[in-house]
């Protein structure tokens, strides 16, 4: 069965996956860029930015695994970009340049309809206005049996967690404090029963935690 | 200068240091007892309960360090016990039996006055009704130049963090989900500037994070 998987989601010690005041200058909110240092030190992380070199240890393995077996991605509109409200035009096509590192269909949750955008290298952005279950169904169909990756951000992950639809949640705790921003965990008494957490894995200056859904 | 130090404060992956519904049966709230398994596997943790044996690695070292150089403790009334509201009588004298593992004066924050209680082995519980700054001043005086340990719980730590009075905050992340309960981190934009976090230290199934206050 096709799974819904979150990978490399990096959280501060105080529980935020994005800092406050997201903008063009601060895609991850103020201070949020400090979260992902570990990833851009890895070989796979550098390759994602078109670079070379990088470490090839446990952090790199986690980054690589995030893409394996994935046939489509779902993300929230704030992860797609800094534009808010009705789209003023169709200029914004994501943070990732003409050739985004997805290479498959990406379903962007938003309340603001927009025609699909075809990028180089197999990435097509589709804008889904009828909610998370519809976005997942469309992503599953597009993935043709492969898994669906849930990219983020926080609001999107919170909804899929509350719906009980996330199968695999890889959280990376970075030794960073953000003070404020977006959390993925909100009070939800049944979360404790629905997921289990594997023993932590020490990376290079970060900690990897993998939550998996208990069998129903 | 005498420091205010938090040690061995164990937090779930979803950010709680106590589960919901604290009671006599569930001192750490429902599910919260799973947080401290790592501590009671260590030699120092077992000794605290009057037991023997236990591991002597990095986790044990962190537990031991928590008591060194400490001359007084401050804690919140919910950490002291499950009784809420005005004290019905003076029977409750803490979770720790006749000889609590403090061995020094302990200042319990509460809005409900109560005479001090002298226990065996040097522990005296004082009840402080005029707020956290007063409790800390009294603890500092009692510690006679030594450090003050801030025991918890969540509400108490949140207040001392907000006041900028915590010097050392050792948080242990356990691979546990609680779903709901008490958090120590609440949105506080300046926290990110006031503290820095050392690289994580891998324990036996848990991760140690040490936050220290930046010099002013
Ligand atoms: N730390 C990490 O590893 C990591 C990973 C991924 C992302 N991030 C960061 O997370 C931040 C984004 O997270 P976020 O919580 O602000 O937002 P988000 O989840 O990316 O997007 C929220 C937006 O998605 C749309 N949306 C969500 N649910 C919807 C629904 N049920 N129906 C219709 N539209 C829906 C809405 O857009 P409209 O307003 O258009 O309706 C909503 O405003 C960014 O800073 C990103 O960089 C961090
Ligand atoms: N995970 C860990 O490592 C760890 C460590 C320590 C404790 N804990 C757990 O944390 C939980 C307790 O935390 P909590 O957040 O519920 O409560 P808490 O901080 O222990 O106590 C809160 C109470 O302290 C008193 N108080 C706090 N601030 C005050 C002020 N400014 N003035 C007067 N009184 C004040 C009030 O008592 P009154 O209602 O009497 O006024 C308040 O209800 C327990 O379950 C404990 O086991 C966990």
UniProtKB/TrEMBL annotation, chains A, B:
Domain of life: Bacteria
GO biological process: riboflavin biosynthetic process
Pfam families: RibD_C
GO MF entries: 5-amino-6-(5-phosphoribosylamino)uracil reductase activity; DNA binding
InterPro entries: DHFR-like_dom_sf, RibDG_C, Riboflavin_Biosynth_HTPR
Signal peptide: none
Stored SUPFAM superfamilies: Dihydrofolate reductase-like
Statement: the UniProt record of this protein carries the keyword DNA-binding: yes
UniProt domain Bacterial bifunctional deaminase-reductase C-terminal: residue ranges: 8-192
Key words, A-Z: DNA-binding
Keyword match Phosphoprotein: no
PANTHER family noted in UniProt: BIFUNCTIONAL DEAMINASE-REDUCTASE DOMAIN PROTEIN (PTHR38011:SF12), DIHYDROFOLATE REDUCTASE FAMILY PROTEIN (AFU_ORTHOLOGUE AFUA_8G06820) (PTHR38011)
Name of this protein: DNA-binding protein
Lineage: Bacteria, Bacillati, Actinomycetota, Actinomycetes, Micromonosporales
């Amino acid at each position: 069965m096709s799974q819904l998987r979150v990978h490399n989601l990096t959280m501060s010690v105080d529980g935020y996956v994005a800092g406050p005041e997201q903008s063009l200058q601060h895609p991850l909110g103020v201070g949020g860029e400090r979260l992902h240092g570990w990833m851009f030190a890895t070989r796979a992380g550098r390759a994602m930015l078109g670079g070379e070199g990088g470490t090839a240890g446990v952090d790199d393995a986690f980054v690589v695994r995030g893409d394996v077996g994935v046939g489509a991605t779902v993300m929230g509109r704030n992860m797609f970009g800094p534009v808010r409200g009705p789209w003023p035009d169709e200029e914004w096509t994501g943070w990732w340049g003409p050739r985004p590192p997805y290479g498959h269909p990406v379903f962007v949750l938003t309340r603001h309809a927009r025609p699909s955008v075809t990028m180089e290298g197999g990435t097509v952005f589709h804008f889904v206005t009828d909610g998370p279950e519809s976005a997942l169904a469309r992503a599953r169909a597009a993935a043709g049996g492969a898994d669906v990756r849930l990219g983020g951000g926080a609001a999107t992950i919170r909804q899929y967690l509350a719906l009980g639809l996330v199968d695999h949640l890889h959280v990376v705790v970075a030794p960073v404090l953000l003070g404020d921003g977006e959390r993925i965990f909100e009070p939800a008494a049944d979360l404790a029963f629905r997921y289990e957490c594997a023993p932590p894995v020490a990376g290079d200056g970060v900690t990897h935690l993998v939550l998996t859904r208990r069998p129903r």
